[in-house]
What does this fold into?
Amino acid sequence: MRDYNKLVKYLSEYGVTVSDDRLEKLDRYYDMMIETNKSLNLTAITEFDEVIVKHYIDSVTLIRDIDLRQNLSLIDVGTGAGFPGMVLKIIFPELDITLFDSLQKRLTFLDGVISELSLTGIRTCHGRAEEAGRDKNMREQYDLCVSRAVANLPVLLELCLPFVKVGGKFIAYKSDKGHEELESSGRALSLLGGSLNKEDSFIIPDSDMVRNLLIISKDKSTPATYPRKPGTPGRKPL
It folds into this structure.
């Protein structure tokens, strides 16, 4: 098995112990991602050391702000190759996770990972967030919603907050421009029932990569008019 000491060390700082079984699952996930990446563009980051830092450690930085060692339902909107959702599931198996994406090919890859690793309490879901956010089986059904590198924050809020239960949280994984996006999101937060809980900006260990986690609280139900029709949030942000 490859060297996962950086990840193990990082998680240990937050009191999280990672079993060899979970590390073996991460290792198999890496192998499958690299193999699939030859025919399907999953990620531009393929070197193992970079994947550890920029995908695996980055995914679990959420532990800085939320205790993930409990039975929480989480939806990862725009999951892509499975970051952060798949990594969070492997490290924190108590989580019940939905991996949501608009590209079926990516989800087919993730279904293969779920099967290969014999994971339970995790599923994929294909569709447009604007439509799924209106589905009664998904609307306001999740304790947590996460999204990494999908869209500008005002757009992302309209796509993601409808999934979150009142009392739950939406976490946007943003770069050093996250604060700038936050400043232009006041109207969207107000209209959609959210408010800023915390802005957590830091450098990802062993890198020069700035990560800004924007923790948004869901204070009240999102009005039925949101999300708007597919494409509208991107064309006309709130």
Observations:
- The beta strands are 73-77, 96-101, 122-126, 142-148, 164-174, 194-203, 210-218.
- The chain has one domain: 5-235.
- Residues 60 and 175 are 15 Å apart (CA to CA).
- The mean pLDDT is 96.
